[in-house]
Every structure is written in C-alpha cells, then in structure tokens.
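Check this:
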Amino acid sequence: MYGRLLIKAFKKIKEQFGNISDTRKGEELCAIIEQQTTENGRFDTLGGRRLRDLRDQATLGQEISLRSGIADALSQYLGYANFIDFQSQMREENSSLLEKWKRTYNKHRAKVIGTLALILIAVLVLGYGISKQRWMIWDKDHYIEVDFTKERYKKGVLKMYNEYTLAHFKQIYPDCNTEIFSGDGKPLVWYGKNPDKVYEFFNMDGEHPLTGKDLRPVTGYIFEKYICPKDSLNKSNQ
C-alpha cells in the first residue's frame, strides 16, 4: 500500500508541474513532506532521490516502507485525512471494482466468468497479504520482528518486514583494525548521523534506522577522523 501511495503522489506532482525530471518531482515531494509533517507537529523528511528510487521499486512491484509521518503527509497531499484513511478508501475502491464486476457477471455470465474468477483470486491474494503483513523495528543495533500496534504506528518506528535486512543489517563499532574496503575496492562499512548528530556505522548499505537518510560508504577521511584518529593510533603504538 505504501508503493501505491507513492506512485499516486508522483502522478499528482506530474499533473501540477508538467514534464519535469523524476528527481525534481522527488524534490518537490520532499518539500511537501517537510511542510506537512511540520504542520502535523512531527517534522520528518526523505530526500528527493530516495523518494524517486522507492517509487521505481514500487513500480516494479517490490515492497517498500515509509515512516508513518511521511505516509500521513503524502496521504494528506492526495486529499486523505491520513494513511489509515488512504488505506481504507483504497480497499473501498477495490470492493467497488469487485461489485462492478459482479453486476457484469450477472448480466453477461457466460462471457465474463473466466475474467471474474481471475479478479476474485487477485482480491483474495491481496486481502491475505494485507492481513498477513509482517513488521520490524530497530532495537539498539539490529532489527527485530514485531506485531503491528497503534502505539508503534503513531511513533513512526514500524518498518515493513524485510527478511534479508532483518538477518544481516547491523550497527557496528569499527576501530583502527577494521577493514573498510574489500580486496577489489568495494566498501565494507557505511555511516550516517543519528538524531543527535552522532556518527554511527553499519555493515551494509541502506537507510539509517532512526533518521531514514541514506547511508554513505566510509571514506579514508571519515576513517581517519572518526574511526581511527591519528592521536589514538599513536597511543596504541606506544
């Protein structure tokens, strides 16, 4: 449902601003999110490039997740009260579509029985997927799977379950002996600032679990300044 929300938001941006680049559309949505979340009393943001990439993933049918404040802001931009209202009305649209096909079925039973059967299966699969949606939250230095609760939703801590991220994404605590590049030059450590502006380090690319901002690969400069400063290296050699 997050993917459907983001695709609709990009479509509305295109209707407003015409033929602009996808990155520019993302930047316009970013500004809308920042303004709306501020008005909602819980400021949040998500970069234009990240919004564009998430939209592309959703278009390809991949599952994406958005923090509750951002989902509410995009829903309000589209004219809904919040994300829960958006979900409710989308389900009503699905139900209306089903009823429309039922009427067609009663009127032209012999012609549409095959098509209706396929639609019924799709609706059942969609309903099953919604009811069985799994969630995870960040717990100190890794993700854990949790049940959906209104309290967690309001806090904006829920993320859509991702089996690979749950199993592999970790916060790490590198030191002077930590390898930051593989033998072929690929990064092994990523970093980002937490809400207190403190640098934190992770073993995979992705988003910072608390801020949602894209992580960056550790460079030689970051390694020497924040992981292995020269004074600490000199002390260890004494």
The first helix runs from residue 2 to 17. The mean pLDDT is 86. The radius of gyration is 22 Å.
